[in-house]
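For this section, I looked closely at a protein sequence along with its fold in token form, which I now present.
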Amino acid sequence: MEDQIKKKVKEAYANVALGKSATAANCCSLDTIVDEQSMALDYDKVEGHFEEADLGLGCGIPTDNAQIKAGDVVIDLGSGAGNDVFIARQLVGESGKVIGVDMTEEMHELALKNKAKLGYTNVDFILNDIEDMKDVKDNTANVVISNCVLNLVPDKKSIFAEIHRVLKMDGHFNISDIVYKGDLPDVIKDVADLHAGCISGASEKGAYLGFVKEVGFKDITVKSEREIILSDDLLLNHISAEELKKFRNSETGIFSVTVYAKKSESGSCCVSSESKEQQPGTTINRCC
């Protein structure tokens, strides 16, 4: 099943890179949601934004409030055409470095072309699986970012273990991703096509934060959270009308979150939340 999911994801994002599809048909694209404003993230005013690298595949802006400083080494997981890499490069300046990691050959090639257009010498793109970054050494980065990508990989714990490995001590990650609360129907969880669309690949929020804690991260904070309303048309491609009605009447929700955590020998293993958009029932300052 994991090989099938990986194949679907690579095909979907290769098609986007080659211009065969406007989006990866994902829940992060505006044509698959009811309320366009809920995912209408505007990169145009973000310093360092390069329009040709912005393929509209994210669910957040992970460089925002990521505490990236001049001289830092930043790794972007699932870097695609390089959008967040180039924004991070603006923050680290000439003295820093940004490394983009992606598994899709076509995206990798597109990112290299965009890098050449910008003329950056302190940006690298590496063709690796993000859960096995064999070309990235231990203790490399001050900051790891990612934008709506970790949900594409079934084994979330392996990714967070890799993030922990490549971060320097006292480094941190700031990751935008998709999670769900409640009881997501099994048929949605098991549809390989929807892994490319970040729905099936989403983890339950508590389990997701649990993976972060299990591999040793501290000061875990949900910095923002907002609900994604999937369209009936999208869901009816995969579930029956009766199942859709049950889903709408349940307390299940799919959310875009931005999560921060630190690699540190000290610090709190609590899970806290800073967002003013949290839904009722969210646990605040949940500790070990």
In short: The longest helix spans residues 2-17. The CA atoms of residues 46 and 259 lie 20 Å apart. Strands lie at 73-77, 97-102, 123-127, 141-147, 167-181, 203-204, 218-228, 253-262, 271-273. The chain has one domain: 2-273.
